[in-house]
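Q: What would this complex look like in 3D?
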Amino acid sequence: MNARRKKRRSRWHSLFLWHRYMGLAASLFVVILAITGLLLNHGETLKLDRQYVQSQALLAWYDISPPAPPVSYPLEGQWISQLGDQLYFNDQRLAEVKGPLLGVASSGNIIVIALEGRLLLITPQGEIIEQLGDAEGVPAGIQAISSDSQGRLLISAAHGTYQTDDSFTDWRPTDFMVSPIKTVSTPTALSTRLLRAYRGNGLPLERVLLDIHSGRILGAWGTYVMYGAALLLLALAVCGVWVWASRRRHSPRQRAAIKPGHVRITDKPSAGTNLHDTADDSGSHDLLRP
Amino acid sequence: MTTPRNRMVSIWVSAISFNHRANTMHPFIGSRQIQRTSLLLFCLLPGSLYADVTYQAPRDFLRAVFGGKLPPARMIWITGKRRDQVEKILGHRPRTLRLRYWARQGKRAWILEDIGKERLITTGIVVAGQRIAQMKVLIYRESRGSEVHYPFFMEQFRGAGLSTAERLDRPIDGISGATLSVRSLKRLARLALYLSRQLEETHK
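A: Here is my prediction, written as C-alpha cells for the whole assembly.
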C-alpha cells in the first residue's frame, strides 16, 4: 500500500516537474506571441504598415536590395533616378512606379518625368504637381520626351510625335524631333544615398512583427520552432488540467470524502444541519470543516 | 468582369468538377489531378494577390458621362487653406498640388485616387448640384476588398452631399473585409464634393 502511494506520488511529482519546465520554456513564446499579437491587433491605429525599419542589420537579414542598379537622368542640377520600383528626386522618394523610367524634360518651370502610361509633373523643389495619364489625353505608348525651344513638351509616342500647350491639356501631332536627355551613370555618393533610401522604405514594421509572430523571421526553421511552441502550450494546458485533477482526486480531504460511500463536503454549515455525522434522507453524510 | 477572386473560384470549381469525373468513389482524396490543380492554384495565388483590375478606363468613364466628346480638362490648385482642408478630409497630405476635372452642363467629373490599405484605388465621381450623381471604382489594385466596386455598394453614394465638418450627409454601410477600401471611397466622395463646392464658391 505504502509502495503504491510512493509510486503514485513520484508519478505526480514527475508530471508536476514536467509541467513546471514546460511552463518555463513556454513563457518566452507566450511573451513574444502576446506582445506581437497585441501590436498587430492595433496595427492600423499604430500605422505599423507605414513605419519602416531603419536598422541596417535587420534590412541585411531580410536581404532588402534593389533588383538592378539605379537609372539616373541629370536635369538642371538635379537628379531623377529610378531604383527598383521607386522613383527619386535626388534622394527624395517621389512615387512608386511600374515599368521603366522613360525620360525627363524641363517644360517652363516644371520638370516632366515620363513613365509607362503617364507623366509626372514636379516642381524644381521635387514636389509633385500632378500626374497625367490616359484620362488627361496623354498619347498612348510613350517612348521618349523632350522640350522645344519655347519650353513646350514634346512626346514621342506609339502613333507619332505630339506637342502640348503650357497647361498640358491639348496634345497635337507635330513634326518636331524629340531629342531626349540621355541617362548617365549615377554618381557613387548619390547611388549610396539612393540605396539607403530604398532600403529604408523597403521593410514595414508590420512585416517584421508578423514574421516574429509566426517565427518566419528565422526562416523555415522559425516556423517549426513556433509549431513546437504551439504544441508546448497545448501540452501545458493538458498537463495542467491533469495535474490539477489528479491532485484534487488524491488530496487527503478528497480521499477521506470518497471512502465511506457518498460523502459530501460543504464549506459552510447551512441552517438546520447537524455539525456531526448525520444521516440525511438520501443516506449521505455532511462532513463539516471546523 | 474577371476579378482575382472570381478567377480563383472558377479554378476551384473546374478542379472539383474535373475531379468528380476522374474519380467517382473518392472525389477529393487521392486524385493526382486535384493535387496538380491545387499546386497550380497555389502557384497562381501570389500572382493574383495584387493584380490591378480595371473595371473601366478613366477616359471611357469620362466619355460615358459626357456622351462621347469630352469637355476640356480644367484644373484646381490644392494650395493654402484648401490644402489644409483636403488634408483633413484625406487624413494625409494630398499627393499632388493640383487636380483636374471635366465640367459641362452642371456636371463635374473627377478622377480621384486614394490608398485603401496599401495601393491606390482609382475612382470616377460625378457631382451635380452639390450632390453625387455617379460614383464608380475604375481601377482596383488592393489584394482584398474588391467588393466595393459592385453597384449595390456604390449606389449608396448616389445623392449624397456634404453636411457639417465636410462629412457625408448619410451613412454608408460598410462591407466586412473591405473596411479600408470603404473608408477610402468615403474620403474620395467627400473630397469631390468639397472641391466642387470650392469651385462653386469661386465662380460666385
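A: To summarize the key features: Residues 265-290 of chain A have pLDDT under 50 and may be disordered. The first strand of chain A starts at residue 71 and ends at 75.
Q: Very helpful, thank you.
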